[in-house]
Amino acid sequence: MEWISILKCPITGKDLRALQADEISIINQKSASNQLWQAGGNPFTEKIEKGLCSVDGAYIYPIIKEIVILLKDLALVDSQDKIIKDTIDEDKQLVQNFYNQKGWFTDEEGNYEDAVIFEDLRPFAQDYLTKCHNRVSRYLNPSGTYMVDAASGALQFKDYLQYSANYKYRVCVDFSFQALTECKRKLGDKALCVLADMTNMPFKDGAVDGFVSLNTIYHIPKDQQATAIKELYRMLKTGGKGVVVYEWFKHSPWMNFWMFPFRAFVYSKNRIFDGAAKLVGKKDSGRRLYYYAHSQEYFQKNLPPFKLRVWRSLSVHFMRYYLHSWLGGKQILDWVYEKEEKDPETCGHKGEYPALVFEK
After folding, report:
1. Beta bridge partners of 69
2. Would you state the pLDDT for residue 275?
3. In the chain, at which end, N or C, are there fewer CB atoms within 10 A of the end residue's CB?
4. Hey, which CATH number is domain 96-250+288-359, 3.40.50.1820, 3.40.50.150, 3.10.180.10, 3.40.50.12710?
């Protein structure tokens, strides 16, 4: 398992090594006799077949269904003195629950729920979306050993596979075990699947040749988004390249103009429904998924230097509201794509979805 050399313990930062058969036997004996805990405090009573441990032996990380468990609170310890207080926060738990319970399961047509909710799957839009997906490849090195896909999800679009086609490993990192199960099913031995927190990546400095993070940073708590991107940059080798696809939302002047009437309507409707719910004593059903969009200025101030390019100018809601096949939707998207190709920087600044391009 050559890939162990790029990993580090997410708690101590020390090197990791593979567990030997006799060590696994002892761990399973402790588990059976209730002498093993997860670092977050929960008892651990399952058997493991594979795993890693920090070189000092303090923390054990199971490998379950070929997925390496490298979340701090899921590390295994044999003493309650090693239990840590730093567990997953509420906003991250919200995201993890959504994708484990809903987002990475498919509907009757084979589409992941995440795509059904957050993407435009109409046939006339697919050519435009594919060409936008293809843009990512031009900003990456064409080949290498390790390409990290940070918050890989379930690799829901086939277009995504091209980014690591000429890399030895696609390192799929996600908060969702269900997502990583799908990655392993699709990529087999090419996938190194790691359950980890993007704000505390368990990889050594300068360990990887490239990275992508597509439409996910805005689901990280707002004060930790820059940290997550800095972690990706830290892991990058000299000469490595990476791409973060983000969403400006209210910071996109073009979408603000076109979407104003719809956003005003939704805002008013929600205020009315919330007021009515309070009058009848109905409780709020709660948030489904954490989301926060920073401005360009925030990232320019808080990140290593990057180039700003366009991934896609149009928001999903814009496409759903304004574009239809019977109104020349395909032709409009072709025209938009040509404009984006001619001026990718301006479209990245003013459109909905920018690509933040890094090179070390």
Report:
1. 195
2. 56
3. N
4. 3.40.50.150
